[in-house]
Amino acid sequence: MSPRIKTLRKVLNPPIIKGFKPYGPDTEKINSLPVYLLFEEYEALRLCDYDKSNHHKASVMMGISRPTFTRIYASALQKIAIAFVEGRQIAIEGGKVYFDSDWYECVQCNCNFNNPERDKKIETCPLCGSKKISNFIFDNASESPDVKHCNDKCICPSCMYELEHKYGKPCNQEICPKCGHLMKRKGTPNC
């Protein structure tokens, strides 16, 4: 059975921060790998726990089904629990989402902001006044942060060529660059 195609999830605003770090006397003794909270998981938490929306209303706002929303929300809660119990950092990035409006990023202060007045051109950062601004660029799931931490490989059964597994893309959809055959998974299946 082939995996379901992921639809883009709508995020109204990117988070105002990029993550959280634990603090305390024993922080250097704990696991240093961060827990990656995807933008869609952040949005699910924001809609349910901050805005107090129910799952149905939040799923409509994100443009996904209610069961899909529930899975995203449960994943977010589990990742936060892992971070709290194991004392790990939380990094908010990645996922398969699109933003509700055009967003910008200040190079100087790393502030993310949008342009509510579409007829006016953005020229300065509203927080620090810097003119060094750029469009907020978001990489989709193929560039998810989890890719960096995936040790699995895709292998060609014909010529044995190996390449790094891409998170969210099944190996059997990869084509071997050497011989053109479909690749297969090598390593653990739960990356």
Describe the 3D structure:
With 191 residues, the protein is of the alpha+beta class. It folds into 2 domains: 9-149, no CATH class; 150-191. The chain has 3 helices and 11 strands. The chain has helices at 39-50, 55-62, 66-86, and strands at 9-11, 19-20, 35-37, 90-92, 97-99, 103-106, 112-114, 133-135, 153-155, 162-164, 184-186. It has a 3-stranded mixed sheet with strand order 2-4-3. It has a 3-stranded antiparallel sheet with strand order 7-6-8, with no helix packed on it. It has a 3-stranded antiparallel sheet with strand order 10-9-11, with no helix packed on it. Strand 9 and strand 10 form a beta hairpin. Helix 1 (39-50) crosses helix 3. The longest helix is centred in the middle third of the chain and has 21 residues, at 66-86. It starts with 8 loop residues before the first strand and ends in a 5-residue tail after the last strand. 22% of the residues are buried. The model is unreliable at 139-150 (pLDDT under 50).
